[in-house]
Amino acid sequence: MTESMLTQVLRTTLTADVITELRDENDGWPEVVERLRSAGQRVEIARRFHNEAVRDVRRLRLRPQVRYLGLAGHTPLPSPVEFDDQLPDGL
Predict the structure, then answer these.
(1) What's the total number of domains in the chain?
(2) For residue 88, is it within any domain?
């Protein structure tokens, strides 16, 4: 998956030494590092929230009342999102 590959590239290139060096510079890199860290946290939270909602929907649609009364409709079951979103250490 593209997202997992991006995460692997970030972990490979952004070592703790590189992150420290970028944070010490004054030409805008500290802001880039901070925005990358913030975006990574938001992605992780969004993935967790989505997967919890998928679990809840699947659990509800398996209830006998929902199945017998046709309350689920004809929409397909949602699927969880699985990819590596662990950011590099020190970010």
Answers:
(1) 1
(2) no
The tokens 């995460």 sit on which residue?
A: 7
Q: What is the pTM of this model?
A: 0.74
Count of CA atoms in the C-beta half-sphere (13 A) of 39: 9
Structural domain contains residue 89: no
64 part of a folded domain = yes
Furthest-apart CA atoms within the chain: distance in Å: 64
Which residue range is the domain that position 30 belongs to?
Answer: 2-69
Positive/negative CA dihedral, 26, 27, 31, 33 = negative
pLDDT digits (tens, 9 = 90+) for 39-84: 989 999 999 999 999 999 999 998 999 888 888 888 898 999 988 8
For tokens 């909602």, the residue is 53
